[in-house]
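Our example pasted here:


***
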Amino acid sequence: MNKILSAAIVSAILISTQASAENTTVDTTSNKDSSSFITAQSSRVGAIISLGGTVIPQKEVNLVAKMPGDVIFIAGQEGDRFNKGDRLAAQDIDAMLAKRAQAEAQLASADAGIRNARVQLRNEIENPNSQSNAMMGGLPSMMGMFSDPIRNMSGRGDSSSQRNTNVYGMNIQVETAQNAYEQAAAAIRELDENIDNATILAPFDGMILRKMVEIGQPAQPGVPLFLFGDTSRLQIRAEVPARLVRGLHKGMKLRARLDQNSEITTITVNRIFPMADQRGHTVTVKFDVADSKAAPGMYTEVMIPDPSASSSNLVTVPRSAIVWRGSLPALFVLNNKNKISMRLVRVGEQADNGWVSILSGVKTGDQVMVTPSSSTTSSK
């Protein structure tokens, strides 16, 4: 009797546990998030080729040193934003300032030389040969009677020729002084330009993408300082085989996947380079991308249509919906009893919408779980 009673109690406990488990399974299924399922679609497969690309800023420049000198100022680090005209870096300009002071002294001397030459010219015009006659009490004028071939034995010479010669010489002195002035002024302008070049300014609104110098580091002309770019507008750069370029045109809408992301984003053909690479026989194509998750340097997969390939319509699902049970791919589908069922499938190629084609196991219209976990199982 005790054995019979014990068996009855155990049976009751097992039935209660099984009923509780069934109720739990139903509740989990009924309370599932509908957004975790997506409808399998029919898409074109076989006419799309996925190519690797890189996200780049629409505007990107390498800022290099223009003058020799130690770096004495750096405005920021990678990721810091600046407005157009902001100072990014500066080099030591003490040597150039010393040369500028020297050029200013030369300019002042040249200016004094111009004034002196003009005064001498006026004096020669108003008092012909006055400078030579004033020396040594007029002795040069007396000696000129014997040494100057223009003068005759009577002491009289061609005074107009002598005067023209003196005036011409004074004009040459004025011109020489003016040339010295212009040379000193040009040296100052060159030094001012070099001083300005020692300061690196932001060419447009953007951010520092890469910093290649530190304070105290000597820099020569041509040494890279910053990689600066405008990240407010991004592009994708891809090398497209020449046979696929004929199927592209500016403004064409395509699809791309960003760096291991299951989501597909729309991109637009912005520029097709006119010349193919001689080694790889590929053409550089740039695409505009508006996805806020994109970042410079990120790897992308660009889906390019192949006009020469035949295509067919197959069932497609997101790549994230596929799970692997050992070596077999599987999907979790919502059946007609509103319960989750695992189905083994055959996976095909990537479709033009970025999803993966399924050759067998599901049909168009089935509700497929988007992101199943490794612990997901079929409902009982």
Observations:
- The CA atoms of residues 211 and 283 lie 30 Å apart.
